[in-house]
Write a structure and sequence with these properties.
Layout: H1 12-40, E1 70-73, E2 76-79, E3 82-92, E4 98-107, E5 110-118, H2 127-138, E6 145-151, H3 156-161, H4 184-195, E7 202-207, E8 213-221, H5 226-235, E9 239-242, H6 250-256, E10 261-268, H7 274-290, E11 307-316, E12 321-325, E13 332-333, E14 338-343, E15 350-354, E16 359-365, E17 368-370, E18 375-385
Parallel strand pairs: 5-6, 5-7, 7-10, 8-9, 9-11
Antiparallel strand pairs: 1-2, 3-4, 4-6, 8-10, 8-16, 11-18, 12-14, 12-17, 13-16, 14-15, 16-18
Helix pairs in contact: 2-7, 5-7
Length: about 425
């Protein structure tokens, strides 16, 4: 085009052709400049792509501050009125592959509280996984006020193996709040706690009994903490056990951070229990309703008047053999009552397991072969009516302290 300027204009048509070509060139240049300018501008939060489905779209490099239309979470702009599924990179496997934790964020149309619901910290505790799935399906972002951040399987590598533990035999619920450069368990705990839990105003942690034990549906909560008492009352459960939890658990780390947290105990590991799932789901919906986040009809009422147990005691086997229980979960027992028998499989020797205190059976081992020292029955005592005004003495314990006179390892606690 520019070279043609060196030749004389032979006709008026040649001049018109040259002007037309120059105009096209200028239009093309302006279009390129406009596109480059648009790409250099930061994305507006309201127009940012939002992942809705199994795959999450990452917004690399975007640093848009939170506005009334959404908030930033895990490098994703979460728009109001959406369900967003994300994956948090927490560690690597033995083979160097990524270890990711699935996260579901339900961000309501209207502002309100942020509640975290966590399950699957122990990979064999499957009731909580189903509770979270149903809770997510039950909450509509269009009518929700506030935000629900759900972690359906916190320990995905253990869940895939059907194991309580990580592949290196560490218990994830002994490493919160975690460390950036610690063990694999500590790194996973750090990622979850710093990137997810600290965004929340309250935490519900779902568990079951461990090691072939089953738990009566119950809440574990630090009843010396008024905010935790309020959270437990909003959730609603027939039985609440007073416990501050040992250091290293998610509940203890959250409470120490000023985020009230409760643990839900529901059934046994490895097996789905429909009744336990429905009861825990009803509690979550009661909590969301009590916090003004949803307006669904009332959840099913609690079956009994709520009771708090200020003390608990494990009963241990004194000999090895076959344990056969003579009591049922949730039963009231009296001090001196026979709870079960342990039979030596090679002789006629039978030993009775006796209740040391009176109370309610909160947890028990399934009939099985046991070793001496095996914790077989969990009795709650010092029962009080539970309400929002209850004040209990603190039960804070250090991770290195022995917590009961007979030297019970806290590994046998419900959490």
């Amino acid at each position: 085009v520019f070279g043609s300027r060196l030749r004389p204009h032979r006709t008026k048509q040649d001049a018109r052709n040259r002007r037309s070509l120059l105009g096209c060139f200028l239009a093309f240049a302006l279009a390129v400049a406009a596109t480059t300018s648009a790409r250099s501008q930061p994305a507006e939060e309201g127009n940012a792509p939002v992942a809705d489905g199994a795959s999450a779209q990452r917004l690399e490099g975007v640093r848009t501050p939170a506005t009334e239309n959404g908030f930033r979470f895990l490098d994703q702009v979460i728009a109001r009125g959406t369900i967003t599924r994300l994956y948090l990179l927490t560690s690597e496997s033995f083979a160097g592959s990524r270890v990711e934790t699935p996260i579901v964020v339900i961000h309501g149309q209207q502002p309100g509280p942020k509640i975290c619901i966590v399950a699957g910290i122990h990979g064999d505790e499957v009731n909580g996984v189903e509770v979270v799935r149903r809770a997510v399906a039950s909450v509509s972002p269009a009518s929700l006020r506030g935000t629900v951040i759900a972690v359906p399987i916190a320990n995905l590598s253990a869940f895939r193996r059907g194991s309580r533990y990580l592949p290196d035999r560490r218990d994830l619920n002994r490493y919160f709040p975690g460390r950036l450069l610690g063990s694999s368990a500590s790194r996973i705990a750090f990622g979850l706690f710093s990137q997810v839990i600290q965004h929340c105003e309250a935490v519900v942690d779902l568990h079951t009994g461990s090691f072939h034990r089953t738990n009566l549906h119950q809440l574990r909560a630090d009843l010396s903490n008024p905010a935790t008492v309020q959270l437990a009352a909003d959730f609603g459960a027939a039985f609440v056990v007073n416990s501050a939890a040992r250091e290293g658990t998610l509940r203890r780390a959250s409470t120490d951070e000023g985020i009230p947290a409760i643990t839900v105990e529901a059934g046994q590991s490895t097996l789905f229990d429909e009744g336990q799932v429905l009861e825990a789901l009803a509690g979550i919906l009661r909590l969301l309703r009590a916090r003004g986040m949803i307006e669904t009809p009332e959840a099913p009422p609690i079956s009994e008047s709520p009771m708090a147990f200020l003390g608990t005691r494990w009963v241990r086997a004194d000999q090895g053999g076959v344990l056969v229980s003579r009591v049922e979960l949730g039963q009231q027992v009296q001090a001196g009552q026979m709870l079960g028998t342990i039979s030596d499989p090679l002789s006629d020797e039978v030993e009775a397991v006796i209740a040391p205190v009176s109370g309610r059976l909160l947890g028990m081992a399934l009939d099985q072969v046991v070793m001496p020292g095996f914790a077989a029955y969990h009795i709650g005592f010092d029962a009080r009516p539970f309400d929002r005004m209850i004040v209990a003495p603190t039960t804070r314990q250090n991770v290195r302290e022995v917590t009961e006179a007979e030297g019970l390892d806290l590994e046998e606690r419900p959490e």
